[in-house]
Fold:
Amino acid sequence: MPDHAHGSRADRLRDAGYKLTNARLTVLQVLEQSGGHITSTELLERVSAADPAIGRASVFRCLDLFTRLSFIRPTYIDNNVTPTYVLMPDGHHHHIICNACNRVIEFEECHLEALTKELEERLHVKLTGHLLEFYGLCENCCIEKAVTADE
Amino acid sequence: MPDHAHGSRADRLRDAGYKLTNARLTVLQVLEQSGGHITSTELLERVSAADPAIGRASVFRCLDLFTRLSFIRPTYIDNNVTPTYVLMPDGHHHHIICNACNRVIEFEECHLEALTKELEERLHVKLTGHLLEFYGLCENCCIEKAVTADE
DNA sequence: TGAGTTTAGAGAGTTTGTATCATGTTGAAT
DNA sequence: ATTCAACATGATACAAACTCTCTAAACTCA
Structure:
């Protein structure tokens, strides 16, 4: 079994009652090295490269599990076939998707702590994470559109 | 050609340079009658019921187009196969997804106007919509978990 | 009316995710 | 350390979802 960094996500996995198996730790490691955005296809390739013994089904099982634990969240960026899984480092993630070129611009601040608390109290729910997505045009595509309109 | 309500979305479609075809108007109508959440499979069925002449590919082309125009946004609720498309009535939509039972709780207020404006100015982007998703446990699932932990 | 452009429909083909089940691994109790 | 039961895995066949390609139709504008 290869070396694994046993970070806080592995701890959370164990604390939630799940076993720390090779497949889960490898998938977690690949996700963490992905830079925050990865599709299932890319993930399958990289997991397979890291350990060819890990099967297809296990990778998908991990994606389900990690989604339920709010480690990641599937979202659509390029097309309607493959979701992109985004890491939610502290339980949350925020980005802007350009509707013209599909570029993703990430940003940090969301100021949603107050809303989170208010919703928890009013609706009696327990919130573990959130994803905030804005849609529109990025700087380049704004300029291109303006140029085209001038012609 | 069946009757269609020519609301503001049809206007936006035309204003963006797209033709108001029967397929597009029918898909739009079904989406608007869907109550805000619909999967591609359900949409295909209902469009087919409304007008059997409309083909599969056209429905998916509409979903792509309407997503680019921020009429709708695909998101994962139940599983990793079929996304659910949510209507974004005024360009935005907000909900809570229960990680245990997949129930969706919608809420209205998001207080994101200020952040939208700030991002537009700072990053020189033009934002047309947003989706805010919270994840966690709904009231019922909170209770069940507490009961299980007591045993 | 006629040329050019956009859009549609059909259906096969590709890709992505799932179900099943026998086997292997994990973690805890002894 | 050893053992055991529950949990998790891997292989593969299967099913579902989405796309591609091509031809035909509809719409636009002169």
Notes: The helical segments of chain A are 8-15, 22-32, 40-50, 56-68, 113-123, 139-150. The domain at 1-89 of chain A is CATH 1.10.10.10 (Arc Repressor Mutant, subunit A). The radius of gyration of chain A is 18 Å. Residues 1-6 of chain A have pLDDT under 50 and may be disordered.
